[in-house]
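Hey,

Quick one before I head out. I ran the complex with zinc ion overnight. Inputs first:
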Amino acid sequence: MFYIFKEIRRERNEKILCAILALALTAALASCGSTVVEPQPEQQTDVQPTSSTEPEFEIETSLNYPVLVNKENELPEDWEENLEITTVKNSFDDEVEVEKQACDAYFKLKEVLAAEGVYVDLDSARRSVAEQQRIWDKFMEQYGEVYTKRTVAVPGFSEHHTGLALDLYLNIDGEDVYLNEDMVKYTDVWAKIHAKLADYGFILRYLEGKEAITGYGYEPWHIRYVGSPEIAKEITDKGITLEEYLNILPVGDVTPPKDE
Ligand SMILES: [Zn+2]
């Protein structure tokens, strides 16, 4: 799944230069790290209630940060309408969408890592269900059902829909390292990154040896915001997965795909 998006990015970078220029122009108009919030409850405060039975103020919704979305558990129906997103630009000038609170935590993590000489950037974070559906349809058309099912997350069942799952890449000696096969070589760098995750509310989501529970092979770059350092530390200290923390075990076939 992760690999596919890199392929798409490279393809886009090579073939659709105009699109990139347009993106750059958009980026020039919008400040880096600008917040895109949808929906924006604050903007609705001017709207008068249409009937006396409606509340006169919006009740602030809060996401269930430890939410479980995996091959067995679908994104909650109302998730996207309650999601507040921050858009950030990475070193490739790609715009990456991250859930607001997770984004704040990520920048703190990034800063503390940089102080130790470890440089990370955001490859991919939130993808909407609609976007995943487009990718799914494209792969079904081009490669058929078997390949698509093996390599693309089923729309609605990707943790990336939450905006809380972040795929990192590395910058080593001034060079971006973003291909999976290259990134996995830097085990000591990942160890330094993983050691700091819980302090900022993140966990390493797909652990080695836990493929049968998570449904995914080991991914050192895929981190997940769970809402608080307390929860993250408990999960990390126990060496368990989010599924185990939530006491939800998978059912059915969770055979890890080969191309993860
Ligand atoms: Zn990922």
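The two ends are 6 Å apart (CA to CA).

Talk tomorrow,
K.
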